[in-house]
């Protein structure tokens, strides 16, 4: 049970990244709560940075981003899904980047948050999903 949270980044009362005394990253986004290890935080940042508006889907285990028919996005972490607009994705990227910078998880040359549109800057596999990858 986590008793102490250190706020790493926040852009509203419902959008916060914190770290507990166990080292777990707590990502609160609207009504969703995701609990990540620091390595997963970096993987999520890298996936979001390589996302392009023309993609329908992209994966970097354990994360998956899927474009919906209405143009909105779903970000999946294992079985937990978060509904996002394209601008929400950019907001999430900036929030995660600031949290990672506070934790000193970024390389020294990462002095600026990701630009919009986000561009790949770290190794990640961003490929369209094959049907057999779906559950």
What are the SSEs and their pairings?
Elements: E1 5-12, E2 15-20, E3 25-29, E4 32-36, H1 38-50, E5 57-60, E6 63-67, E7 73-77, E8 80-84, H2 86-102
Antiparallel strand pairs: 1-2, 2-3, 3-4, 5-6, 6-7, 7-8
Helix pairs in contact: 1-2
Key phrases:
globular; alpha+beta; 135 residues; disordered C terminus; four-stranded antiparallel β-sheet; 8 strands
Description:
The protein is an alpha+beta fold and 135 residues long. 22% of the residues lie in helices and 32% in strands. It is built from two helices and eight strands. The chain has helices spanning 38-50, 86-102, and strands at 5-12, 15-20, 25-29, 32-36, 57-60, 63-67, 73-77, 80-84. The strands form two sheets. Strands 1-2-3-4 form a four-stranded antiparallel sheet. β2 and β3 (25-29) form a beta hairpin. The radius of gyration is 14 Å and the shape is globular. It starts with a strand and ends in a 33-residue tail after the last helix. Residues 115-135 have low confidence and may be disordered.
């Amino acid at each position: 049970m986590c008793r102490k949270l250190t706020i790493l980044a926040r852009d509203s009362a419902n959008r916060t990244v914190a770290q507990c005394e166990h080292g777990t990253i707590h990502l609160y986004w609207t009504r969703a709560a995701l609990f990540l290890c620091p390595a997963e935080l970096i993987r999520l940042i890298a996936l979001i940075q390589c996302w392009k508006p023309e993609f329908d889907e992209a994966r970097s285990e354990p994360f998956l981003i899927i474009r919906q028919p209405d143009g909105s996005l779903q970000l999946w972490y294992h079985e937990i899904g978060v509904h996002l607009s394209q601008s929400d994705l950019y907001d999430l990227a900036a929030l995660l980047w600031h949290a990672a910078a506070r934790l000193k998880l970024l390389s020294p040359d990462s002095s600026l948050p990701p630009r919009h549109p986000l561009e790949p800057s770290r190794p990640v596999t961003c490929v369209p999903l094959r049907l057999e990858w779906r559950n």
